[in-house]
Write a structure and sequence with these properties.
Elements: H1 3-15, E1 23-24, E2 27-28, H2 29-38, E3 65-66, E4 73-79, H3 84-88, H4 90-100, E5 104-110, H5 119-147, H6 154-163, H7 168-177, H8 181-193, E6 201-204, E7 207-210, H9 215-234, H10 242-247, E8 285-286, E9 293-299, H11 304-320, E10 324-330, H12 339-367, H13 374-383, H14 388-396, H15 401-413, E11 421-424, E12 427-430, H16 435-454, H17 462-467, E13 499-500, E14 507-513, H18 518-522, H19 524-534, E15 538-544, H20 553-581, H21 588-598, H22 603-612, H23 616-628, E16 637-640, E17 643-646, H24 651-662
Parallel strand pairs: 4-5, 9-10, 14-15
Antiparallel strand pairs: 1-2, 3-5, 4-6, 6-7, 8-10, 9-11, 11-12, 13-15, 14-16, 16-17
Helix pairs in contact: 5-6, 5-7, 12-13, 12-14, 20-21
């Protein structure tokens, strides 16, 4: 149905006595649901599409769009205004429009994620802008919301509405009465049904593309779809029928992901294997110790995916009751600056008030993931009745550092490098999976456990018996990520470089890294574990490899070199940690602030070094050394006695490589 015909439909409905709702573009909010049920904008042609591409049937009815209704390619974008990855893809979407013009139509659908507190109201305001001024007002407000992602509270939203000239009485009424709630929820329901559970998520003529991908990823799909559309037109299909024709036989629901189908890369746990995941009995838990199925959850209070899966775990407990026990273990990721303090706060709540105290603090922190400041942690501790003197001392003393580090090491050994990660009676399930993925594994394990009980195993011994013969970690080849695993590269170590470990260590690991690279920060606990386990047998040498698309990385590398030049290894590694803890704020002023925090840095000399580019050649020389050796790398990359190990590999991959080098 075209937009023009929808206007006629609105008039007919009004004459026919329908109670008209809030105006949305040229339609009404009440009518929007009716139109959505009616089908596509134009009838599909009776032509079979001769390709084997998996497509989804994503209706386009009355959503905000850029580009004409008869575009050859329709990109349906599920997005939200508080998601940083959604903002990151905006330049790519503009490049698509600039490159393809009227051949491409971009259609917006809302999917505000539950852990972004202001994303829902922002979506409601955007739809009100669409209601009042159609596509033009929607996209104008869209740009303002993305430009102000961190300030989307109600007063700011009203200010942005004024900036684009909206009727403020209607805006306040729409927000206060939830007038666009059904429209947004319909988008979210559709997203869930077709498997678009994260943002941003795209369907290009029904073909799915996940995440903030670069232009080249979109271009490949778009070029193919243009060729397909032109072929259809040569068979007599009208332009306005292209989209409907391509998606007419598309999937309407994504198949439920099966845990056993999760492919394990080298170093990752095999979802079919059972791993030995010890439970000491003093960890926070839900469910009885004699539960037939134990779910060990490695999680991080600042991780959005960990927040996303919590409602699913509540559903698991509701469904299985005392047959399931959920055991919490901490794996605060290094690039989440408040995650470790949050883990400490939760463990202190557990120490003072047991499981009830832990889960009360856990709930408050996941409800406020972006506000895990010390002041807020103390505020919530008071609210749940903790002894504040003990609580503050626990934070100040980093009381649970050893416990957290042991749990991180266990996660790393098991290959659970990301969060959330689950081991269900020892079987791994990665990521914020839907309920169906959990129930598939739980049902299988529940059947096995009941069989053991029937044969005489006490319920309290079921978990211990199941994991007794389990694997201690994934099998990993040391150079799984490198195509030339046996090649030894000649990369001489520089005379002066930041190091950890003795100069005469039998194994030298040259780490090529980038302070702005998230994968480089993710591997830090693993490197710490290598140093801890191998001691004087290993020396770590830092080498700079700032990637060109990380705009602050090169200057950050120069700043770290100046700290090293002034104060040596200890100061360098302290500054290194600060930079990785603040990866998203590495501008010039920030680099200076972090240097001042180190203490003892001659700030005049520091600033002069950055102004003059004193260390630029040295940073470039590290990068040139890789090229000269004939290696092609990304970050992080490690040369272990000259052999290349690429990526944020889990501890077993490093262990295998170091053990081989020691031989």
């Amino acid at each position: 149905m075209s937009k023009g015909s929808s206007i006629l439909l609105a008039i007919v409905m009004a004459i026919g006595g329908f109670a008209l709702g809030h105006v949305v573009g040229s339609r009404t909010a009440t009518e929007t649901e009716t139109v959505a049920e009616a089908g596509e904008e134009a009838a599909a042609a009776d032509v079979k599409v001769a390709d084997d591409v998996e497509r989804y049937k994503i209706p386009v009815t009355n959503q905000p769009q850029k580009g004409p209704d008869d575009a050859l390619v329709t990109i349906v974008e599920f997005s939200e205004f508080q998601c940083p990855f959604c903002a990151r893809v905006l330049p790519t979407m503009k490049e698509i429009q600039d490159t393809y013009g009227d051949k491409v139509r971009i259609v917006w659908r809302n999917n505000p994620l539950p852990f972004h507190n202001n994303a829902g109201p922002a979506a409601a305001l955007a739809m009100e802008a669409y209601a009042q001024g159609g596509d033009e007002k929607f996209w104008e407000l869209h740009d303002i919301l993305f430009a102000n992602q961190r300030t989307l509270d109600r007063p700011q939203l009203e200010e942005y509405a004024k900036q684009v000239g909206l009727d403020m009485d209607k805006v306040r009424k729409a927000l206060d009465e939830g007038m666009h709630k059904k429209t947004i929820e319909a988008d979210q329901t559709l997203a869930n049904e077709i498997g678009a559970r994260g943002t941003p998520y795209f369907f290009i003529n029904g073909r799915q593309l996940r995440g903030a991908m670069p232009f080249t990823a979109f271009k490949g799909h778009i070029d193919q779809e243009i060729a397909t559309a032109e072929k259809l037109m040569s068979q007599g299909v009208k332009k306005e029928q292209i989209y409907a024709t391509l998606i007419k036989d598309g999937l309407t629901k994504a198949p439920a992901p099966q845990p056993q189908e999760q492919a394990a890369r080298p170093g990752q746990p095999d979802p079919k294997a059972v791993y030995k995941v010890p439970v000491q009995g003093n960890e926070p838990k839900k469910g009885p110790n004699d539960a037939l199925v134990t779910i060990v959850e490695f999680s991080d209070f600042e991780c959005p995916f960990c927040g996303r899966v919590e409602p699913t775990l509540d559903q698991v407990k509701d469904k299985y009751g005392d047959d399931v026990r959920i055991v919490w273990m901490n794996n605060p990721l290094p690039f989440h600056r408040n995650a470790k303090a949050a883990a400490t706060a939760a463990l202190e709540a557990h120490a003072q008030k047991g499981d009830k105290g832990f889960w009360a603090m856990h709930e408050k922190m996941f409800a406020n993931q972006k506000a895990l400041t010390t002041d807020n942690l103390e505020k919530w501790a008071k609210e749940i009745g903790l002894d504040m003197a003990k609580f503050k001392k626990a934070l100040a003393d980093d009381k649970y550092s050893k416990t957290i580090q042991e749990q991180q090491s266990l996660a790393s050994t098991l290959g659970a490098s990301g969060t959330p990660a689950f081991f269900i009676n020892g079987r791994n399930l990665r990521g914020a999976q839907p309920l169906a993925s959990f129930t598939t594994l739980i049902d299988e394990e529940l059947a096995k456990a009941k069989e053991l009980v029937d044969k005489g195993t006490p319920r309290s011994k079921v978990y211990e018996k199941i994991i007794a013969g389990g694997e201690t970690g994934p099998k990993a080849a040391p150079a799984a990520a490198a195509p030339d695993a046996d090649k030894v590269y000649d990369i001489p170590a520089p005379k002066k470089a930041p190091t950890k470990g003795p100069a005469k260590a039998p194994v030298v690991i040259q780490e090529f890294s980038d302070f702005q690279c998230p994968f480089c920060s993710r591997v830090l606990p693993t490197i710490d574990q290598v140093v801890k386990e191998y001691g004087d047998k290993v020396q770590i040498i830092w080498r700079d490899y700032p990637l060109p698309f990380h705009k602050d990385a090169h200057l950050a590398a120069q700043a770290a070199r100046e700290v090293f030049a002034q104060k040596g290894d200890k100061a360098f590694w302290a500054y290194h940690d600060l930079l990785f803890q603040n990866q998203k704020t590495l501008g010039r002023e920030n680099l200076e602030q972090y240097a001042e925090q180190i203490g003892g840095i001659d700030m005049k000399a520091f600033k002069a070094a950055l102004d003059s580019g004193k260390h630029k050649d040295a940073v470039d020389a590290d990068m040139a050394a890789v090229t000269k050796a004939g290696a092609r790398i990304g970050t992080p990359s490690f040369f272990i006695n000259g052999k290349l190990l690429q990526g944020a590999q889990p501890y077993p991959a490093f262990k295998a490589a170091v053990d081989e080098a020691l031989k």
